[in-house]
From TrEMBL:
SUPFAM superfamilies: CheC-like
A molecular function (GO) term: hydrolase activity
Biological source species: Haloferax massiliensis
This protein's name: CheY-P phosphatase CheX
Key word Hydrolase present: yes
Family matches, as Gene3D superfamilies: CheC-like
Swiss-Prot/TrEMBL keywords: Chemotaxis, Hydrolase
Length: 395
């Protein structure tokens, strides 16, 4: 299976177009104005995909597809969003009481129409026929996008096999309902789409998988450095590589206030990196480094800059070693704002030369949630492609 920017753009546009059709279907069915917030193409292992899904309390409907394209789709809601949607579709029906079967049936019908329209767009692009399965309703948060997939096409490599996940975040205009639409095609189906996109410069997926492993290794090193610096045990919760329209990068972050540092890195690859803490985490980590200095804001800001600098070095040094190159890092700039506002100028700068961005997203946290550290890296597309070529098995 080969991938490159052109095929990823095709994937992203098809996924976004399909999600817009799904949103339009919901608007027609429930009278709720719905729009697509952001579309991501995420590369990860099967176990990563499932573990992230399992951490969320979700109500979901699963539909498989086969024919000219094979794989699986999931429409996933929080319980609150599912109840609001059922109420909009069937006023007076309580999804939690004896009418639960009616609520379940209602959600399955919505998913059947929305996901069916989503898949039709891919079938039209490939000029093929795709059949979908009967919807399966799931109210167990441990059932993820791959749990109900026929093993064929996903069995090689086990839980460490890399898969592409197309993830669309949708929400109602009044924010009352939020949900995710997942699509996971089989490896052979991805190859079919890549071939249709006419990308003769594609790289083996192993190049992207190797880069994904570099991200994991960098996040683990950053976690160890934070632990060494603060004396607080930390672990990497999630680390992933996403392909996102450049304007969608700020929307990948919440509007919660964050504090941390932003740095620029140059070499192969080059780009920007942000080390962000929520406000309680920033206070906790500053206190662990400077006990008794709660009243000295300048010193606490300096401490956050220093740990941001150390974390960035740990995160990027492994990349430089694996690529046998040098990556230089700028001095850390302290930031304190809502997350989307911090990332927006970085994405705006990259937007001068590229339409899409590879977004690297890693989360490091303590077991007791004493603090959480989010790492967001935005490599320059041209430089990243050079790095990926170095990681190609044929290089």
């Amino acid at each position: 299976m080969n991938l490159d920017v052109r095929s990823l753009r095709t994937f992203s546009r098809l996924a976004h177009s399909g999600a817009e059709k799904a949103a339009g279907s919901l608007t027609t069915l429930a009278g709720i104005d719905t729009y697509v917030n952001v579309t991501k193409v995420e590369l990860g292992t099967k176990s990563d995909v499932e573990s992230e899904f399992a951490e969320r309390d979700l109500v979901s409907v699963h539909i498989g597809f086969s024919g000219g394209l094979d794989g699986h789709t999931v429409l996933a809601f929080s319980p609150e969003s599912a109840e609001r949607l059922v109420d909009a579709l069937m006023p007076g029906i309580d999804a939690t009481d004896a009418d639960g079967e009616l609520a379940e049936s209602s959600l399955k019908e919505v998913a059947n129409i929305m996901l069916g329209g989503f898949i039709d767009g891919w079938a039209d692009y490939l000029d093929t026929t795709v059949d979908i399965t009967t919807p399966t309703y799931v109210d167990d948060e441990n059932d993820g996008p791959l749990d109900h997939v026929d093993a064929e096409g996903f069995e090689n490599g086990g839980d460490d096999e890399h898969v592409l996940v197309f993830r669309n975040q949708l929400e109602a205009a009044d924010n009352a309902i939020e949900f995710d639409l997942y699509m996971v095609p089989t490896a052979s189906s991805i190859g079919t789409i890549v071939e249709a996109s006419g990308d003769d410069g594609a790289l083996p997926v192993e190049s992207f998988a190797a880069f994904s492993e570099m991200i994991n290794d960098g996040a683990n090193q950053a976690s160890e450095d934070i632990t060494a610096m603060t004396g607080i045990d930390t672990t990497v919760e999630v680390s992933r590589l996403s392909f996102v329209p450049i304007e969608g990068v700020p929307m990948s972050l919440t509007d919660a206030v964050r504090r941390g540092v932003v740095l620029e890195f140059s070499g192969t690859p080059s780009g920007y990196i942000a080390i962000l803490f929520d406000e309680p985490s920033a206070e906790n980590i500053a206190s662990s480094l400077l006990p008794g200095m709660e009243g000295d804001e300048a010193m606490r800001q300096s401490a956050i800059q220093e740990i941001g600098n150390i974390t960035t070095s740990g995160f990027l040094d492994g990349w430089a070693n694996a690529l046998e190159t040098t990556i230089d890092i700028s001095p850390p700039k302290h930031v304190h704002d809502i997350g989307s506002a911090i990332i927006d100028p970085l994405a705006t700068d990259l937007a001068q030369s590229q339409e899409y961005a590879f977004l690297i997203d890693s989360t490091i946290r303590t077991d007791d949630d004493e603090f959480t550290c989010d790492i967001y890296a935005l490599p320059d597309e041209t430089e990243l492609r050079k790095a990926l070529r170095k990681l190609s098995p044929a290089a």
